[in-house]
Amino acid sequence: MSDTIFGKIINREIDADIVHEDERCLAFRDINPQAPMHILVIPKKPIPRLADATAEDRDVLGHMMLKAADIARDEGYGDAFRLVTNNGEAVGQSVFHLHLHILGGRSFSWPPG
Q1: Which end of the chain has fewer CB atoms < 10 Å from its terminal CB, N or C?
Q2: Active-site pick, 38, 63, 99, 101
Q3: Is the pTM of the predicted complex or chain greater than 0.90?
Q4: How confident is the model over 9-21, as pLDDT tens digits?
Q5: Is 38 a catalytic residue?
Q6: Is 20 helix (H, G, I), strand (E, B) or coil?
Q7: Distance between terminal CA atoms of the chain?
Q8: Are 70 and 77 in contact (CB under 8 A)?
Q9: Are the CB atoms for 43 and 56 separated by under 8 Å?
Q10: Per-residue pLDDT tens over the stretch 66-86
């Protein structure tokens, strides 16, 4: 598996408040939430960045997007949530294991950042 903090969460070496798990992905609450709902969705396969994904990752990427919508709905934010993924350190990626941030429960500005 991956030696990142997310790989350690997948391997249960580090505790997390898990809200969803299946054979392809894991979702858990962010330890430093930026909104009332801030959940991370990660693939179980270690993909460092979205730019590193390949055509064989298409199914897991789509699965993660659909699960993010399900999770937002289950959390009561199905009508208004934001998905964010950072690709690279220059734009804020700090853990190099692909992850989606599901954010909801407050207003967001546009453009982000």
Answers
A1: C
A2: 99
A3: yes
A4: 999 999 999 999 9
A5: no
A6: strand
A7: 32
A8: no
A9: no
A10: 999 999 999 999 999 999 999
